[in-house]
Amino acid sequence: MTAIETGTDDLLAERIGHVGVITFNRPESRNALSNAMYHGFQAALPTMALDPEVRVVMITGAEGAFCAGGDVKGMHASNSSGEARDGQPAGSEDRVSHLRMRQRWVSEAIHSLPKPVVAAIPGAAAGAGLSIALAADLRIAAERALIVTAFANVGASGDFGGSWFLTHLVGAAKAKELYFTSPRLTATEAADLGIVNKVLADDDFAVAALNYCHELAERAPIALRYMKENINRAAHADLPTALDAEAANMVHTMLTADHKEAAAAFVEKRPPKFVGG
At 167, is the secondary structure helix, strand, or coil? Predict the structure, then answer.
């Protein structure tokens, strides 16, 4: 286990084997977002992207919650006092620029990270917390987890890419329903909609989620990186562009030591041992 510096106790990061683990750590507020967390992501994600020992990144939350999204109590206090909160600028245009920057540090960085990112959801994922989970490549959830867009409940339109990611997962009409009406989805209901990939038992969820990520990290990391790149591109590229990029990536992966190892292991009827080369 190797600690990774985030600059704050609100967001913890470490490497366990080949898995980089990022943990929301404000359990007294169900891990509601803080300004320090955004800077923590800005520090931790590039470090994990460049570390060859990190093959998969897992984002989770401390003490039974994933992330409740924005700190509504802090919003109310700011509204009542008329003062900007948690390092936010006061002017409207400056606040827009500030939010755009934080979204890129977190959601865009997760989406474009050249490694698989798994959101492990032990409890509630709401508002911007859900948006961040949706930015991940895969989502696994405990049976007790609750999934809720939540923005309509506080008179806000949504941020951190939730509307974009959710639309790609469930389609425009269903995404609008989930945003407009903000139902509290169980983990099973979210899985039925394709929002959650896998539901795990509540008991020992943290251990099971980490094991899930360790198993994913045993696969060929270069191939996983190009798979993620191909599928991300499919959201906006036309077919000829996608085919051309797939051809280049396929040739690159088939020239790797991991491909040669996998072919040899197939012939020899043994599990392959991938080294990331």
Answer: helix
| Token pair of 146 as six digits | 């609750």
Instruction: List helix spans (H) across 27-123.
Output: 35-50, 72-81, 92-103, 109-112
> CA dist 262 to 15, 226, 230, 235, 271, Å?
26, 17, 21, 30, 8
Q: Which residue in the block uniquely carries the two structure tokens 């750590």? A: 25
pTM: 0.94
The closest of 147, 135, 123 to 45, measured between CA atoms, is: 135
Which CATH number is 128's domain given? 3.90.226.10
- DSSP H or E stretch at residue 237: none
Tokens 């755009």 locate to 100
Q: Same domain, yes or no, for 187 and 225?
A: no
Location of structure tokens 């036309």: 238
**Nearest CA among 99, 105, 92, 121 for reference residue 24:** 121
| 117-121 vs 56-61, strand pairing mode | parallel
Residue 126: how many other CB atoms lie within 10 Å: 27
- Read off the pLDDT of residues 143-201 as tens digits, 9 standing for 90 and up: 999 999 999 999 999 999 999 999 999 999 999 999 999 999 999 999 999 999 999 99
Q: Are residues 22 and 38 in the same domain?
A: yes
Q: Say if residue 226 is exposed, middle or buried (CB neighbours under 10 Å; 0-12, 13-18, 19+).
A: buried
Q: Are residues 232 and 255 in the same domain?
A: yes
Instruction: Find how far residue 191's CA is from the centre of its chain.
Output: 16
